[in-house]
Amino acid sequence: MSSGSTSTSTDAASRLLEAWSGRLAIDHHCHPLFPWPRDVGARQLRAVFTEAVDPEILDQHMPALAAYRDAIRRLAKALDCEATEEAVLQARSKSDPATHANRLLQQTATEMLLLDSGYTGGQPFSLEEHAREIGIPQREVVRLETLAERYISSAGSPSDWLGAVRSGLREAVEGGAVGVKTISAYRAGLALRPIGADELSAAFGELQARAGSGGSKRIAGEALCYSLLADAAEEIARLGVPLQVHCGFGDNDEDLAKSNPLGLRPLLVEPRYEGLRLVLLHCYPFHREAAYLCSVYRHAYMDLSLTLPLAGLDGQRAMRETLGLCPWTKVLYASDASRLPEIYFVAAAVHREALAGAFGEFVDRAMLSFDEAVAAGEQVLAANARRVYNL
Ligand SMILES: [Zn+2]
């Protein structure tokens, strides 16, 4: 009995994958590749499949991560080599890096990349270079905190600064940016609260003094980040573009305990943000909280980028859990890939399989017809992003 239901499930899932194979996806959250590196070693390859930067994790423990082993297996198949890390690295080193990257990216069946250029771990291609090197159309998503850092030194007061950020956002959108992204989760958290004028003024004074004496302009702490987000979100609502919010796991400089998306509720309910579309990125392990927000608030959307493929089988389960409460009209497709084409390739395959697994189960349980499941998956792959980003 159980083997019978397993084979049915595999059958519906694989039929869905086949039905979607000609459908191009919109990757609504990803980052530029690194300029073609000459030699990619094991450590560099492993680094794109984890949020860890600790060399001991990369050297000793990554080979013991099932999701990474699976990535190697998939890459080996694509590169037609033995399923070992060594063989994969050797196979990639044999071809011209631009050809290799475009070949892998072509297999992701992506029609458009929405690129967040704010990746800070190294020196990726600029957006112009990326457009030249990669044969997939792209659009920009502008990173709020990076943009806001530009106006720190010239501002006469915190309200001056926030005003400059507003006009910077207007310019970015007029210049073609299709959305804005905040990394408040890294810098302060997402437990939004009102910040008093005195608290903001003190924090801003400190930041300006540090920047003025040649120190870092990095915006961090609740006073600065929450004030910036609260003010910018009004402008973003007016501009009619969505605000992407990093939620859940990510770089190791964030406190995961503070990156639960439930803290974003003010942005979804306060009248001053009327119409603001909020896109919750990654979400894991808070994807159920995110799904709840999407289920009750008109303008909340979510994805499982990064969760797929970093969390392995748990990523597949997260897709099922997400589609429990969250209507599929509110789930977006994304890879959160960066740096190396290998992660683009693996993330795309795993994402499509997770969708097929979840919708295949709906078909098996007669909750949806096969055709309904095909159409639902197509919405996730591209139609939802087209609508949310006005593409
Ligand atoms: Zn990202």
Please state roughly what percent of the residues sit in beta strands, choosing from under 5%, 5-15%, 15-25%, 25-35%, 35-45% or over 45%.
5-15%
End-to-end separation in angstroms reads 47 Å
The gross shape turns out to be globular
**Helix-strand pattern:** HEHHHHHEHEHHEHHHEHEHEEHHEHH
Written description of the protein model:
- There is one protein chain.
- Strand 6, helix 14 (287-296) and strand 7 form a beta-alpha-beta unit.
- The protein is 53% helix and 10% strand.
- The protein is globular and about 60 Å long.
- Strands 1-2-3-4-5-6-7-9 form an 8-stranded parallel β-sheet.
- It is an alpha/beta fold.
- Bound molecules: zinc ion.
- Zinc ion (ZN) binds at residues 29, 31, 116, 336.
Lay out the secondary structure:
Elements: H1 2-20, E1 25-30, H2 42-47, H3 55-61, H4 66-79, H5 85-94, H6 97-106, E2 110-116, H7 127-133, E3 138-143, H8 144-149, H9 158-174, E4 179-182, H10 184-187, H11 197-212, H12 222-239, E5 243-247, H13 265-269, E6 278-282, H14 287-296, E7 300-303, E8 305-306, H15 307-310, H16 313-325, E9 331-332, H17 341-364, H18 370-388
Parallel strand pairs: 1-2, 2-3, 3-4, 4-5, 5-6, 6-7, 7-9
Helix pairs in contact: 1-17, 1-18, 4-5, 6-17, 9-12, 14-16, 16-17, 17-18
Bound molecules: zinc ion.
Zinc ion binds next to loops.
Features:
53% helix; globular; alpha/beta; eight-stranded parallel beta sheet; 391 residues; binds zinc ion; disordered N terminus; 9 strands
Short description:
With 391 residues, this protein is α/β, with parallel strands linked by helices.
